[in-house]
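Re: beginner question about structure tokens

> Can someone show what the tokenized structure looks like for a real chain? I only ever see the sequence side.

Sure, here's an example I had lying around. Input first:
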Amino acid sequence: MKQSLDELCVNSIRTLSIDAVQKANSGHPGLPLDAAPMGYILWTEFLKHNPSNPAWYDRDRFVLSAGHGSMLLYSLLYLTGYPLSLADIKQFRQWGSKTPGHPESELTPGVETTTGPLGQGFANGVGMAMAEAYLAARYNRPNFKIIDHYTYGIVSDGDLMEGVASEAASLAAHLQLGKLIYLYDNNHISLSSATQLTFTENVGARFTAYGWHTQIVNDGNDLQAIAKAIENAKREMNRPSIIIIRTHIGYGSPHKQDTFEAHGSPLGEAEVKLTKQQLNWPEKPAFYVPDAALKHFRQARIAGKKVEQKWNALLKKYARKYPQAFHELEQLMKNELPKGWDENMPEFPADEKGLATREASGKIMQSFSPNLPGFIGGSADLNPSTKTELINLGNFENPRTKIGDVQGSLDGGWNYAGRNIFYGVREHAMGSISNGLATFNGIIPFTATFLIFSDYMRPPMRLAALMKLQVIYVFTHDSIALGEDGPTHQPVEQLAGLRAIPNFTVIRPADANETVVAWQVAIESRHRPVALILTRQKVPTLDRRKYAKASGLRRGAYILADAKGGKPDIILIASGSEVSLIVEARKKLEQKKIAVRVVSMPSWELFEAQSKQYRDSVLPSAVKARISVEAGASQGWQRYAGDEGVTISVDKFGASAPGEEVMKKYGFTVDHVCKEAMRLFKSTLTPTPLPSQKALRKRGAF
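And the corresponding structure tokens:
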């Protein structure tokens, strides 16, 4: 039976995918088999893209939120002519290949975002649609739609079960993101069972209730119905769209279609053979693509070049008519920081009473944000507490939305060009949406919440680090010192957890001026996320005429104050609010003729990036008497305190009481630091003698 061109193309996607999974003897064949028709129609009839230039700024974005079905995406990328070869397809899931088990944006040209943890891609797409809306509102002019594209995605049952998808869907509907279109692969099967056991809700009714435009396609192989639904979704500009497409997982597999066995395991050689027979496809050779199908897919290259050339011509006219706006947009597209972006940064005078680093951070943000048009973000309903509202820069909101008498940072109006995002109490979605925003060159998203609630954001923070995205996390209320709210709100283990994430920078500044430098580092860190850990309580602003300059923060740790001659008897190390504590302890200890070096260590990651020579100069191995002081878990501090040193830390939950009282009860006082220092100093003068062999035998050591 002769197949139509459409059938040849769809089955090319299917068979490439199952051949790659079978060769790797690992992967997920079910989704590519059932979702190939929707992928084919979307990529060949609707997606505005240029395979020859995957980074074209005004391309449509495509997110495979169901990242386990990665071979669907790799097949589409190869067939439409992206820089991905058939040899790459054959290396699926192998060491060093461009086709890893789940899509990774840093590895594969054309992959917009790293997906696999379900629900993340769904929320990333919301962020991408928000970025498009923001850029279009800021830069488009009459007859110049410089930014004008859609965000598409394929989502699965598992994606929609995850809570982050619910958070993101709710916000997307509120924001009326009409250029966001998701195709729901409704195959009724999850990894371990049919969804009848766990997921029986009416998805269409649910999304209609959110405020989405919903459609149903009853047959996942009906190309015309899928195309019509996408056309309808594109015409609906006031609501995001979800198209519920009934599919059959493992389509074409005689024994595994509509079973969970098709989800996450290769079909097996015999079943691959039978599936190809069912699809009227040659059994051999593997990875076969008919010339007619490949030629049809590769039309995307020709069409893509034409549409980008047309856009480039429009951009040139735009540059002549709106040179200032073009210059600003060009810097964003090149991912460049404007010159002098930080020239208005404040300098804070010495002040024993000082101010909270969250307060300092708020003032600093006001100083540079007008100079960074790509700096956009908000908090999970905590602007008044995190001090992260951007004054006079407007609020990101659909201009059609009617807002009543709302208090807050409303100067600048409500529209898509606003720079303050109101996330509501949706920390998980906030983190994931920010990843989507950060996939756009020039966009620097920030988030804000209490440090304790960083736990809600762990998955997107890890993925931001994996994708090398510049996302800035403002975490305030950073320790047990926040006081009366008690242990539910007092972070203990969170700092250690954040420091464990690879390619992730944690900075806990000691005072207002270190906070200035911390923000500079965060903005300049173009390829990794940064977390700023800030206090609720006031901390002294150190007198930098007496102590080292705050610019030392750039090196992660620096000698804030040293012993005479640079020969300390003991080294006190601290981060954040505890730095002022060890500064005062040094004064008392010096009265007792103990030579003390004070080290401010705001960032382990920045310190570890320094040369060994520098690190040894700050923490010389010859000085064994060291004390680290931080109001968080002790985990990890041993590497700096040393085997013979002491860590003053918090390795239990906090308590509800005034912050100063809690800190006192947990040992964060000058007297306690001095007591530990004296004990440690005396032990270095009178070292404990090694036990004799006789004593060891008595203890049963031999």
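Each token stands for a local structural state, so reading them left to right follows the chain. The chain is about 40% helix and 15% strand.
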